[in-house]
Protein 1
Amino acid sequence: MLMRFIMNMTSAIKRSFILLFVLMFLLPVFSVRAMMDRDSSLTFGMVAGSSEHTNPLISAERDMQALGSLVYEGLVFINDDYAPQPQLAQRWETSGEGTTWTFYLKEGITFHDGSPVLASDVEATIKEILRLATEDNVSYRGPYTSLKYFINSVKATAENTVEIKTNRKNYGFLFAMTFPILPASSLQAYNPPGTGPYVMANYVPGDYMMLTANPNWWGGTSSLQEIMTIFHATGRELVSSYEYNRVDAIITRALNAAQYRSGVNTLNISYRTRQLETLLFNNQSYELQEVKVRKAIRFAINIEGLVNSSYLGMVTRSDTLMPQGTWMQGGVSSVLRQDIQRAKSLLAQAGWDNPNEEGILTQVIGGQLKKLSLRFIVYDESGDGARLSTAQQISGMLQNVGIEARVINLPFSDAQARLKAGNYDLALAAFSMDAVPDPGFLLISGNTGNYMRYASGIMDKLFTQLRSALTREAYTQKLYEIQARFVEDCPFVSLYYRNGAIITRQMFSSARDLREPDILRGIEGTR
């Protein structure tokens, strides 16, 4: 009768009642004393939690993946310097010029159900990820589908040793080994056990999740003993919960998070998402085949203005695809900024130097007078209007140098169809970048994300060399050369990575570089 009563309550009252229910009746899962102690517990709010399961291999909600990273761990993790470090693996070695990688597991690590972590669990997890990525009858392939490009075969050769064969014979392979390891017996379970610092004590989809410290965690004893996460239906409800002290902190990608600046009572902690925003050029459009025109467009745009107006500063600039401030970014002598005179000069050099009565540049092509008029498609699936606002502002900036850009706002599916068909000239589009620092899917001729129809033998060769560079030094050098070539050829404009924010009343992590999906990395505060 009690649960029937709960189910009939409104969502706001329902959440409050469940919290009270947990506090009163779920002892000893966690103690009332700990919930009262802000130093040993924390209550988060987020817009997520509609999934019936928490299995990280098929998790579709980005913020839920952040919670999942506290429960599940991989062979490798990426540290603050964006370098691969051992996690469940003790060490690794490579042979056959990078074709074979052998991982040696740490001894004594157990899953939350008490079973030991074995190489057979690693093998089974990899095979399940590859099954999801390749089988025809799979409705959702999960967040680790790119693993199919890295692993040819996997085999547990001993209790704590696993051998992986790959055709990506390079340093970047290690970044792909960050997927969570599950017990072989629980690969398709809704809520499988993990190995991380927190155990899932309770989960009610759409309402809350309670994590408690794993007393047997191999990494030590967690200072933060309990993490309660309250799920919200909308961003408005989320902000309201924070303002009325229902939660200690909120995780959000909404632009209204910008209103909270770090101060005496609130901290605004920015984290980088994997969503890269770009301005695409159709390199086969006759107006854009000339690199000088593409560069002119790049110099005509005031990207800093877009950052502050459309996105309220909640982005991280990236001129070369690679995140700035990391070892991956480099190879470019100067930061690209708006330069109107240079844009006009480049257009004139390309033959676009005769404006008509409307101020649009023209040129005689094939015996006909042509206007420099471009179809500019945009989709705004986030619902915050930021991308459409950006497109409209870019259109105005291009007008100032004599280029007409006709903004066409489309649903995502229609925009995607036009990108694939090449039925556009300019497009604002976002890409989800992989954990592996390798943007080849965008730049290699004919690759999956190369909607620009960009083709360069030099660039293709650079990626072949990148994917055979086994040391970090050699890999870095090739990344630098790729970025330099990207700036020189200007196949499209890399704008910025979207940022999210953690709004909190207390600092809870010592991590320097927070990024998806490890937004909550370091929250355990071991002692």
Note: Confidence is low (pLDDT under 50) at residues 1-38.
Protein 2
Amino acid sequence: MSKIVRSWIVCLTASAIVSFSGAEAVQGAPLNKDQRKIISEIKRDLSKVASLSRSKKFDEAEELIKSAEEKLDNLILEAMLKDDDKIVIGQKKLIETKKKYLDLAKNPDKKKRGNMVSFEEDVAPILIERCLLCHSAAKPSGGLSLDTFAGMKKGSTNGPLLIPGSANTSRLALRVVTPDDNLRMPKDGQKLEDEEIGMIILWINQGAKFDGKSDEDKIGSSVDSEDEEDEEEKPKSMKEEKPVSIEKATGDETVSFKDDIAPWMVVHCVRCHSGETPASGFSLETFEKLMTGGDSGYVVVPSNPDESRIHQLVVKQDPIKMPRGQGLLKRKNAEDFTTWIREGAKFDGPDPQATLRSYVPTEEEKRAAELAAMSAEQFSEMRKSRSKEQWERALPKEQPAQIESSEFLVMGNVSKDRLQAVNDWADKEANSLRDLFKEKDNPLWKGRLTIFVIKDRFSFEEFNITLHQRTPPAEMVGHAVVTPHQEDAYIVVQDVGDSVTSESPGLHLIVAEQMTAALLKKKAGNLPGWVVQGAGLAVAARSGEGSEYLNGLKNSIPELLTDVKKPEDIFVDGTFSPSGTSAVGYALVDFLIKSPGGGERFSQLVGRIAGGDDTLAALKTVYQAEPAVIAQAFVSGLKVSKKR
């Protein structure tokens, strides 16, 4: 571990020091509105201490802590609170935690610990500060929610987020290190610090282990010293504290809030002005909250732009203060905003309490609508054009040969005869997939499936590095990509030849495996790795392909199972390495397909998991047995097979 990363690890452990033991809290009289506002200010100020500490702005962090202490002391006197009042205990613990956090940031050698990275203490603070604005349960951009570890394990619409033990194949790591501004996260934000990236990579390589109380809790909650307030103690929303006047549009207005104002607010403003602690206490999550205003009061005065604080900040002030850290609005945006306020700041959306995001389509939603409107011929042409562009990006000096059929576009730097053979195998496997999963789509993928056939390892690695920002592990000889709405649908295979051994699967089996993975990814991006990888090998086995290689995989399973603590863990992602997942997944899927109910039951299992069911719950429902019992039967079957 580098000195920088070790220092960062030490700094980030501070929030775990405070003990939560002590006398039972006593709740005093409810605070009034102004007193609750002071509590909110204290929390908001203290929430900035960690960021300032990591940026080495120690004086500013100390000032915030000192200010928080003074505010709390004054509040105790004003509200006649007791030392054992719950709200006092909670705030004092929070202040104490931040003090020790700052102290360790300034003096990292004070506390030493081993090289293991803690998710709750080390990784969660980074995610909370840099990722939750866009990836919370309330705003799961791309279908990804990071506010619980369960959400992290589930991944997004693009597939799993974490491959424990392998940062170079984990999307979480890849998306924070990529030099491509269009792909790097945080989107449109400043790149993570090298120390933060190093922390995430080290945690993943150490197994991406969760050390909180429950993976359904908010991340970082096990080391958060701030007590939850009783429901009656929580500040009421500003909506409840003061009336909000909302006037519906008549249709005579020249500017529409829904079409002309809300879109740029969602892009430029909602990131900071949303969530439980929006900047300046001002939320733009809904139209109603826009009209409610923030800590300074109303920000929009209908018919009077000059008296509207938000108009001054966005349009009039020199320099313009909002949006902070973003490019200035376009001139038309500013003119529309002025006109909208002058015309009465009227609302023409479906519901003033609905989120602005809900009726402002994202770029992804716009693209999805465009794709849905395409004819089969247009989609096929788009697939051909995108595949050509992808090849030219990855291997610009290689001129590919190409074979087209109704189901497939086969492209590669091998001979046309080789491509034709791959196309023929693919046709055969497509029929097997239709039979197993009861698929009726023709073709199976919109616009056809592209099969990139690459002649050697060097070119295969170049393809992965250029298009996916990763160096594939040695055992990877193929992979599948199917994006939401199937804008991309392709597999990439390395031509390893036709000879099948215990070490080499042969090209036919690789094609069958990756086609199955592509079909399952078309169904859902949340399927566990053993289902995706195992189903492909099992489909190939049904057609008699790669038997020697597959037998070798099965023979490796007993050793892989030696470290499994509970039988049902074999169904949990992360239990095995990527190569181990292929071996166990193949044997598991083969076992399930050959069990009573066969392929139909397995297809039901895939459908349930794709629909959002937990893997273990889906197994229990479909096979009418506890997952542990199914796992034990699977292991017993392996022993019988081995004896024979």
Note: Residues 1-28, 110-114, 225-241 have pLDDT under 50 and may be disordered.
Protein 3
Amino acid sequence: MTKTLKLSGFPRPGAVVEFLQDNEAHIAWVLEESQGRLRLLTRTKREVKLPAARLLPWIGPEFPPGATREEIGHRLEDIEARRRDIASGVNAVELWEMAQGELPQAPAEWFAGLLWTDPGVDEIAGLGRALLSAKAHFKFQPPDFEIHPADKVEARLVREREEKDREAVASAGHAILSALWARIKNGQPPLSPHVILPEAEGLDPEVEARLRAMLLAQVAKKTTGGPGGEYDALAKLWESLKKPLNIKGEHPHLALQLAQAWGVLPPHHNHLLDEAGYAWGDAWAKAFAGEIAAQKERFAALAAAAELDPTPYVSIDAATTRDIDDAFFVAETTLPDGTPGYSCRVTLARPCLSWDFGAGLDREVFSRATSLYLPEGSGHMMPEELGTGLYSLTADGPKPALVAEFLLNQRAEIVETRPRLTWVTIARNIAYPDAQAAIETGSDAHISLAMKIARELFQRRLERGAVVIDKPEPQVTLEGEPASVKVDVVLRETSPDAELLVSEFMILANSGLAVWARENGVPLLHRTQDIALPKEATGVFTDAVDIFRVVKLLAPPLLECQPRKHAALACEAYATITSPIRRYVDFVNMAQVQSFLETGAPRLARAELETLIPHLSARIQEVGQVQRFRPRYWKLVYLAQRKRQPFPGVVVEDAGPYPTLSLPELQITTRAPRNLLGDRVQPGMRFALVFGRIDALTNELKVVEAREAE
């Protein structure tokens, strides 16, 4: 064992030294020294010049100068092997555990004294190498090693593990994403969830889970969770992995396509739900089982003590509707001035009966904002136990309700508004076709009277300048498994009178209660459209050209606390309250009215209500995108499944090089090059349209042929 050790002064020729390069210790032989400048020969027979200050603080052994390069090489090899063997036997973590808390720093020979009775330069050098490699536990501050405290060590170890994980994920991710992209470009079908991609054979489950999470985060467009957050890390990983794919141009749905190709997501996955953060189905409600159970207990206690309104209310809805939030009862009556009129009681579900505002369930329902009704099914704003069960106005027991009674004159103008809180039993839940049949045959006196009132309400709105859009309603149906789904679109069979009846009663309730709230100082969330409409923009519109023209004149309604007019509905004020099970705005308004009727004060003052508007408006916009765009996606899939089949279209605007056409039976619009339509194209002209490229995911619909209809 060589004992020679030199820890100070400049090394002489023949001395063995070490220096750091690329974070590794390199051994060398001093050939020449001049005023602190050294000429060294490394173990690889390379000459290096560097200052003595660059040397590691262990020097030796020293040999007589004048050795040949071959002799130097042999000696360096022997010493290097010895030191490497010593370093491999040193447990740096155990040394840290012995030293941690005893002193802040120490030289390598102090640590060597913990292991050997009389350590030589090789032991000190080997141990020094071990400490240099334990960067989480020690920091080299020449000539000593700083001993990190336990909390800093733990943080560094976590970072090291994360870095190691990132490297493993990046290495596997490059191969997997490249293979998936190749499958997409070659038109290969997506993998079944149970089929293993060859490039993923033997992949660490944690690495695979990280890659899948990365794709799902990108599909949902969750690119950041704050500095250093989970999504921030996934976004950085995504950027590093997609670069080698060399994809030209913008590819907004790349992550979705890769996830589908891998079998992580099914074909036709609704990425809009992911982007909106809207959980489909009812499984999300399991997290709030305790709150739901507590609500059911309170409901049962209140129902047992409730005095029931004996009025035989009826509801009219689609046969498949489960979340019923309105019913009605009408009767002829004598008004306070002695003249004949009508009593119209619009009964509304009251799910805020014993709601815990600010609790977890409330925050989740607020985030959902509205129920969604899509071709693939329904997603309810509330847990189904509450929204389609406990509070739904079904004819199966007592239900808490807000009854808004309107006294109307014979022209269906409001004479008096009387809202009250009560419990009701629903006499009948009627489907639209049955109500339509009763209206047409006159077989139900109650519904016939309700229809008479609804027609008067409708006529008064037209006189005040309402805009009524009457257009076909295509119904999209899906059949089969996602990989081979068949899409069909048929025009929904309507029940026009029954639908008008319900529509007018809902407008009456929303506008009538908005005026009542204004008069009584109850702040509500109003839908306003305070614009002036030209006379030609009012009335009933059924023609596609007229509808397109009129819609362009309408500004989107605003959500605000100020009760302004709603021009298209011809209402002086309008605050939605008729769907508290389906829309959070209505739910908030219902709670405002309930609190006022119970206590004489609204739940929230106007200033408090206004603070909700920015967040609620943004959330409604995000979730509303799903309702607007998802049906169009399926309509484009429907067209893609019928390539080269002509579809009827009508020109609704002829401006520019690409006139706009409407497909009335599908209720979608598209554009076509003017040269396909002819030089004398004008609104109202009808064509049989044939489509070429159709991409439902990117909303691409290209007309390749247009034959003028006879």
Note: The two ends are 106 Å apart (CA to CA).
